[in-house]
From TrEMBL:
Principal location class: endoplasmic reticulum
Name the UniProt record assigns to this protein: ARAD1D17644p
Keyword Endoplasmic reticulum applies: yes
Span list, region Disordered: 206-248
PANTHER family, A to Z: TRANSLOCON-ASSOCIATED PROTEIN SUBUNIT ALPHA, TRANSLOCON-ASSOCIATED PROTEIN, ALPHA SUBUNIT
Residue stretches of biased makeup (Low complexity): 212-224
Annotated Gene Ontology cellular component terms: endoplasmic reticulum membrane
Pfam family, one: TRAP_alpha
Basic and acidic residues compositional bias, start-end: 231-241
Membrane-related topology note: Single-pass type I membrane protein
Length: 248
């Protein structure tokens, strides 16, 4: 088995879904019409026509379960997997348009005897596409009777989603903080600068803080010194005591 030829075969994966490419080396590969391949995705939903559509999330690895049944006369050796994400064909279009090619990955090599079925686990990684409905076309790269084979699987309908945002995501918290600050500023301006003047209500004036320190006397009585210059008030002294002082 010339398994090293699979490295060359990996280079043709990007051309599998190209439209009308006469130079594609696929003509150099053998067709395996009796090979059956089924791909199972972990998550599905049904569209309006009842067709199962696989759910793929950007940035999240998706494990594919690939069942391969060899109904050919000889064994096959799987060595790689690739493919393309295709746009939904427009009305009247003969072939779908390639949106992005997938990176070719190595499998095994895995030998499948005639009449046998093997299950392959493959991680679909690196998705970063616009949330939309696409078709997924996979290509299994194999060797059969000393010849190369590219087994096309699909197109399989898929829907691309963005991952849900956590409430603790720093980006979301920053947006919430900016939103609260903006709403607060707009609310303050609207109430104190627009609404209250419009209603004729003046905002309450700010209270001035009292100055600390000793107060200055405003009159002679408050300072404890009488206007007669004697330092006491004679009005409360009995009159006969005053006359006695004058005689002395």
């Amino acid at each position: 088995m010339k398994l090293n030829n699979l490295l060359w075969l990996a280079g043709i994966t990007s051309a599998v879904a190209q439209e009308g490419d006469a130079q594609t080396p696929l003509s150099q590969t053998v067709a395996l019409d009796n090979l059956r391949v089924e791909v199972t995705f972990p998550e599905y939903h049904q569209d309006k026509n009842g067709v199962q559509v696989a759910d793929l999330v950007n940035g999240v690895d998706t494990e594919l379960d690939i069942q391969v049944t060899n109904n050919e006369a000889s064994e096959i050796v799987l060595g790689g997997i690739g493919g393309s994400v295709l746009e939904k064909p427009a009305k009247g279009a003969k072939e779908p348009k390639v949106f992005v090619n997938l990176t070719t990955a190595t499998l095994g090599p895995l030998t499948i005897k005639p009449g046998a079925t093997e299950s392959i686990r493959h991680q679909l990684t690196g998705l970063n596409l616009a949330p939309y409905d696409f078709d997924l076309a996979l290509v299994l790269l194999a060797q059969y009777q000393e010849q190369l084979a590219a087994i096309q699987v699909g197109p399989l309908p898929v829907s691309i989603y963005d991952p849900p945002i956590s409430s603790l995501d720093p980006r979301l918290l920053l947006i919430e903080l900016i939103l609260v600050a903006t709403v607060g500023a707009v609310g303050y301006f609207g109430v104190y600068k627009l609404l209250l003047p419009y209603l004729g209500v003046a905002p309450a004036p700010k209270k001035k803080a009292k100055k600390s320190g000793s107060s200055t006397p405003t009159s002679g009585a408050s300072s404890g010194v009488n206007a007669n210059g004697k330092g006491y008030d004679e009005s409360w002294i009995p009159e006969h005591h005053l006359r006695m002082k004058k005689k002395n």
